[in-house]
Structures are given as structure tokens and as C-alpha cells.
From TrEMBL:
Gene3D superfamilies: 2.20.25.10. It comes from Euphydryas editha (Edith's checkerspot). One of its GO terms (biological process) is termination of RNA polymerase I transcription. This is DNA-directed RNA polymerase subunit. Residues 77-117 form the TFIIS-type domain. One of its GO terms (cellular component) is RNA polymerase I complex. Pfam families: Zn_ribbon_TFIIS. A zinc finger (C4-type) spans 14-35. The lineage of its organism: Eukaryota, Metazoa, Ecdysozoa, Arthropoda, Hexapoda. It is found in: Nucleus, Nucleolus. Coiled coil: none annotated.
Length: 120
């Protein structure tokens, strides 16, 4: 009787013929040598790991739109310059008024340096 032996956690027995099954591989199913029964690896591992990733979404402007965080004038977003038509403008935010009224965003065209402000 070796059922309670130290290798119990890594040894499985075929439910059909009782033979010792080969060790579970990292990938793929396990096949009984004696009766050829195939066992899904999931049946050996009832512990499932669930990873939940929480993203910080504090940015007013979608992070996907920020193309260059290293720009010295600030992050660059897709925004059409009304002066030269370039579609890349850097922005900076400034809290000029009370928090209830939002903040002012300064846009600067990366091409012609045209500046405009927008109150959010
Ligand atoms: Zn078997
Ligand atoms: Zn421009």
C-alpha cells in the first residue's frame, strides 16, 4: 500500500485499469500505458490561477492617443493644428480655476508651435 506515499501528489492512477499513469507533462494530455485511456491535464490540476490586472485610468486623454511621452513640451496627442494642418500636438494641463470647473489644456503644434487652449 503506497497510496499515501510522498509521491502521491505527482502520481496519478488510471481510473479505468488502475495502472500508474506517466507523470503529467507541462503541456499535453496524459495517456495510460496499459489501456491507452487519455486524460486531460486539467483533470490533474483543479487549481486555477486567475490574474486580474487593474489599469490606472486617471488620464483624461486616452493613453492610446499619447504617442510620445518624451516630448519636452509634453505628451503628444492626435490633434489637428488649425493653423498648419499638422495632426500632432503636444499638450499640458494647468488647473487655473476651481476643481469643479475642470482644468485648462494647452495644446502646442509640434510643427509650427501654434498654441491653443481648451477648457475641459
Ligand atoms: Zn489505464
Ligand atoms: Zn501647426
Amino acid at each position: 500500500m503506497a497510496e499515501a506515499g510522498p509521491f502521491k501528489s505527482s502520481t496519478a492512477f488510471c481510473a479505468k485499469c488502475g495502472s500508474i499513469l506517466p507523470l503529467l507533462q507541462e503541456f499535453g494530455s496524459v495517456k495510460c500505458y496499459a489501456c491507452k485511456a487519455v486524460y486531460d491535464p486539467d483533470s490533474f490540476n483543479n487549481i486555477k490561477f486567475n490574474y486580474t490586472i487593474h489599469f490606472n485610468t486617471v488620464s483624461v486623454i486616452n493613453n492610446d492617443k499619447i504617442l510620445n511621452m518624451d516630448n519636452p513640451e509634453g505628451p503628444v496627442v492626435e490633434r489637428k493644428c488649425p493653423k498648419c494642418g499638422n495632426d500632432r500636438m503636444s499638450y499640458a494641463t494647468l488647473q487655473l480655476r476651481s476643481a469643479d470647473e475642470g482644468q485648462t489644456v494647452f495644446y502646442t503644434c509640434v510643427n509650427c508651435k501654434y498654441k491653443e487652449t481648451e477648457n475641459s
